[in-house]
User: Fold this.
Amino acid sequence: MKEPPAIPLPDESAQRWWRPWEYLGWLILFGVGYKVVAALGLPIPTCPMREFVGIPCPFCGGTRSVSAALSLEFGEALLFNPLVFLGVMVFGVLLIASCFRPARVRRGVNQFVSLFDKRGWRTVAVVVLMANWVYLLVNGRFDTL
Assistant:
C-alpha cells in the first residue's frame, strides 16, 4: 500500500514575521473595543484594592491612562499613571519596531531582560513601582474615578 504524501510543516522562521503584526492587530482591536465601550457608556470595572481598602494600587489609573493615550492626550495619560503610560509606550514602540526588524528587537529585548537576572535591577524595578505608588497616593487623582 502506498504511503500518503507527508504534509509539510510550516517553516518556523516563516511564521515569525507575521507574529508582531498579529499582536499589533490585537492591540488595535482592543483599542477600538475600548472606545466602543466608552462611547456606549458601559461601566468599566474599578480597582478591587481601592474598592475594599480605600487606597489605590500601584496600577490604579492605568485604564484611564491607556484611554487618554489612545485619544492622543499624552500629558493627561502620564498624569493618570506614569508607570502604565510609559510601559504602554515602550510596548507600543517595541511592537511596531518588531514588525519591521524582529531579529534586532528580539536581540535587544533579550539583552535587556538578561539585566533583570542581576539582583540590582530587581531592586530598581521595585523602587520604580513604589515611587509610582507614592505618586498616586500623593497626587490623589484616584479620587476622580
